[in-house]
Protein 1
Amino acid sequence: VNHAAATGTGTGVLGDTKTLNTDSYSGGYYLRDITKPMYSTGGKIETYTANYGTALPGTLLTDADNVWTDRAAVDAHYYAGKTYDFYYNKLGRNSFDNRGATLKSTVHYSRNYNNAFWNGTQMVYGDGDGSQFTSLSGALDVVAHEITHAVTERTAGLVYENQPGALNESFSDVLGNLVENKNDPKWLLGEDVTTPGIAGDALRSMSNPNEYGQPGHMNEYQNLPNTREGDWGGVHINSGIPNKAFYNFVTTPGITKDNAGKIWYRALTQYLTSYSQFIDARNATIQAATDLFGANSLEATAVANAWASVGVG
Ligand SMILES: CCCCC[C@H](S)C(=O)N[C@@H](Cc1ccccc1)C(=O)N[C@@H](C)C(=O)O
Ligand SMILES: [Zn+2]
């Protein structure tokens, strides 16, 4: 019995309607996208539910009439497709392994779970507690953040601690915002799912890391213990410094989002390694800009200046 691509509709976390790529199979519909280039080698985008438990991947979502009402699942599926498209069309990467690996997401992980993560195999999304977060798959910057962890794991392999870990987090935030591609002058993270009861706030700001308790300069670097309580040496705290460097770069007159993304992606995939420090990221992004645009290009000069302005290099 063969699969057939179908187009369904669904309601997202914020109440919006989206069209979804689904798979019709013996009368039912599966939340499975078989329309991407990855399908030529068997790759799919599949979305599961953990049904508020912690067993993964849980159950592949099905629907009788291709009208989908599980809002967290609708967005996890739709945004995974958008992230795949960005990596394929803008950066020439075919899924996180560059070999068309299936993108598997699970929603409704645990109860009141205020986080989302990549577990080495798949993306996992909590529903939040309704105060700190709403369902985290409801934001494209979150989904692209998690999928970028998979790319980082398969390329630079930046270890999740101290400066390499803060770089790991920062590349996920940078690609998260590039994929989301909003006209957001503040370059916020998580604005769509953070504190549903409060408008206009976010989890992090790349333009002003201090606004949400992050350093925006090396002289504010926080030496935290490499423990869970210490956020593994402050990977979500000190990421404010490389985040601010990227913000300074991408907002330099003459620099485009596409070119900034190509430079950061080339640094991540060609030059960085497991224990790279902030200075290595500075050197890698300058080298990437030089490779792509030339030694004395606007890009190469602006990258060096951007890192210098946060006290790196
Ligand atoms: C479970 C172990 C911790 C994994 C942390 C994951 S990678 C992570 O960084 N998640 C993001 C989610 C996110 C992304 C973009 C925007 C908003 C929220 C994150 O920042 N988590 C915060 C809450 C944290 O773990 O401190
Ligand atoms: Zn992360």
Protein 2
Amino acid sequence: MSMIADFYGGKSILITGATGFLGKVLMEKLFRTSPDLRVIYILVRPKAGQTLQQRVFQILNSKINMQMKTRRPHELFEKVKEVCPNVHEKIRAISADLNQNDFAISMQDMQELLSYTDIIFHCAATVRFDDHLRHAVQLNVTATQQLLLMASQMPNLEAFIHISTAFSNCNLKHIDEVIYPCPVEPKKIIDSMEWLDDAIIDEITPKLIGDRPNTYTYTKALGEMVVQQESGKLNIAIIRPSIVGATWQEPFPGWVDNINGPTGLIVAAGKGFLRSIRATPMAVADLIPADIVVNLTLAVGWYTAVHRPKSTLIYHCTSGNLNPCNWGKMGIQVLATFEKIPLERAFRRPKADFTTNNVTTQYWNAVSHRAPAIIYDFYLRLTGRKPRMTKLMNRLLRTLSMLEYFINRSWEWSTYNTEMLMSKLSPEDQRVFNFDVRQLNWLEYIENYVLGVKKYLLKEDMAGIPEAKQHLKRLRNIHYLFNTALFLIAWRLLIARSQVARNVWFFIVSFCYKFLSYFRASSTLKV
Ligand SMILES: CCCCCCCCCCCCCCCCCCCC(=O)SCCNC(=O)CCNC(=O)[C@H](O)C(C)(C)COP(=O)(O)OP(=O)(O)OC[C@H]1O[C@@H](n2cnc3c(N)ncnc32)[C@H](O)[C@@H]1OP(=O)(O)O
Ligand SMILES: NC(=O)C1=CN([C@@H]2O[C@H](COP(=O)(O)OP(=O)(O)OC[C@H]3O[C@@H](n4cnc5c(N)ncnc54)[C@H](OP(=O)(O)O)[C@@H]3O)[C@@H](O)[C@H]2O)C=CC1
């Protein structure tokens, strides 16, 4: 019997960010392992044209692939529906916007949340690297502060689990499971965001974030400080995952549904848009599968509530120190998988190289990214269609420039608390809530990741693989034709303009002619 699964039975659980990547996997695992939980409250903001019910429906139900008109196998909540057929009755969606005062939650809903919540998992955040500081502070800092205030009014609350990121202190090389203070107090930052105008905020942002690369990592660090300062009598724990990737094993290998982190680049490589990337092949690729993060989160929730550690414990959910893999190995495996299982309608053949300095990066960006996009847009214009490739390529290059910081450095995260927790679990819990990253086989994981991107994110049918391979062959022929034509044109132009080139050309032609004549003569003699 799993003690952790048992613990969540009958509980009322509040999840923020449940419509996000990690939130969905968390909810799925909770329902699958503790189908007798009382309710999961999810704070959901209404989105353009969608009611709350429609958003919940979208999480729970398989999307129909309109091209195939069939229900696709393996949607996220498929297994849950077997063990918990009334799952939709156990999700209580509460209209809430974390950017608003009191989250704009109705009085009645607030009363219900305060009275019944036993555990909080705070996953909501803005994960954009380029978010305006005001917005990033509002969501990653102020909202966390408000949620803690709410939590302090919950008489039944047993644990508050805050999801941060292993990169909140990415300005350091070695990171321990402690909170490192930022120079300016979060309260001062929150206050200043109230009265400073956008232009001044823009001006001071680089000074505030200091040696961190973006507003995301900075505000996540401030969020941790807020958690520490406002913890009061609450039982709190912080989890710091590194780069969250597709699921490893559960509920299915390779499940992923958004383009954050490496996923977007995997798609770009598979579709042939991404041809070169500025990355250090030997740098540690600290990826961590989403199901490992979720298993650790649920174990931490149990441990924090039951064992009530005296101080706020921080748990690193990283792979680098226990089972390292590097970007070089990862890139090779991604491309090898696309050889076997290509994506449909690729723009070019999947083939990408790592570059290591600014000059080669600029060169390959011009030759392999910008030039093909301009040529393709020219072709689209000629055939009366709207050009779009240059815009898409510029977006990709912007994304690459934002991710570069993370793929050209290595960090060391200590994992004492995480390993301590693992040793406290029963063998059954170690199996059901496995977060031992040492058991992960990277090559197998990456292959499943790439396959998952094709199946779950892009919703491509496996039956289309032969056609996708055919398409790649056509692209290869076009590539050879194009290169030959380019060579001939360049040569013709050179010959027209340069006496030296002409001389070289005549020398080569006469040499070939003599060579052939010699062969012809010697074969005639033999006869
Ligand atoms: C040699 C072969 C190589 C093969 C590949 C090898 C893999 C190497 C991978 C290396 C990756 C390294 C990643 C490091 C990440 C470190 C992470 C730190 C960990 C964390 O804690 S944070 C969580 C991660 N966060 C992110 O990843 C967010 C990063 N993204 C952004 O900040 C912004 O999106 C970005 C990059 C600034 C781009 O902004 P913008 O140009 O404005 O574009 P949009 O965001 O508007 O989106 C464009 C387009 O995509 C759609 N979109 C956006 N997000 C999603 C989503 N989550 N799911 C689905 N679709 C999404 C969006 O709607 C837009 O579509 P349109 O149709 O409207 O144009
Ligand atoms: N993905 C990763 O690589 C990593 C993630 N993390 C952390 O994990 C957590 C979850 O990340 P992930 O699932 O990937 O992120 P997602 O972007 O997929 O999800 C973010 C969630 O926050 C919600 N949210 C955003 N703004 C608001 C708002 N104003 N009001 C209510 N809800 C809001 C989103 O809701 P909506 O659907 O309405 O947009 C969504 O549910 C975050 O705290 C992140 O910092 C840490 C390390 C790595």
